[in-house]
Design brief:
It contains 5 helices and 6 strands. With 172 residues, it is α/β, with parallel strands linked by helices.
Length: 172
């Protein structure tokens, strides 16, 4: 069994979905510390031939050690509208805009309190569009007390995985 484990990121790049499609099971990694200004809360999009950051601000004051699954979106209503507007302005003239924008707008308009919940819904929706049917689970449901350097290994052992697949960015 091939397994991949990764944090739920905000509008992930195409390689993220290639990874999900390649494995038998994909595990969202949320029981680890959140890093501010990471791909969990932002990504780059193209707008007028320029890269801009699409960011979902989060509450971090006094929450330095929070896990990804605990991170709350900051100023929810204002930031939902801002992100929807940025996406619309950047991609309005694209060929398939009308096919996909309304669904993404619905997801972004929901009252997600937790950033990870928003990211997972976006990822699951894109998997559906791409017809990716990989089993997707979540480490929040696992009862592991492993130390940081053993955590991924213990997930693989628990899942009876014989092939752990990771991205080049996770090499270390």
């Amino acid at each position: 069994m091939k397994i991949a484990i990764s944090q739920p990121t905000y509008f992930p790049w195409q390689g993220y979905f290639a990874l999900i499609d390649y494995v038998d099971e994909f595990v969202f990694l949320e029981n680890i510390q959140f890093n501010k200004r990471s791909w969990q809360q932002r990504n780059r999009i193209m707008n007028n031939q320029k890269e801009i950051f699409l960011t979902m601000p989060v509450k971090t004051k006094g929450r330095f050690t929070q896990n990804i699954c605990e991170v709350e979106i900051d100023n929810l209503e204002q930031n939902k509208k801002k992100n929807i507007s940025l996406i619309k302005n950047a991609y309005l003239k694209c060929k398939y805009f009308d096919c996909y924008f309304e669904d993404f707008k619905k997801i972004l308009s929901k009252n997600h309190i937790k950033l990870a919940d928003l990211n997972k819904e976006l990822i699951m929706h894109i998997c559906k569009i791409l017809n990716i049917n990989t089993i997707i689970t979540n480490d929040k449901n696992f009862q592991l007390s492993s130390k940081r350097d053993e955590y991924l290994k213990d997930i693989c052992l628990m899942k009876n995985c014989n092939n752990y697949i990771s991205t080049i960015g996770s090499k270390e």
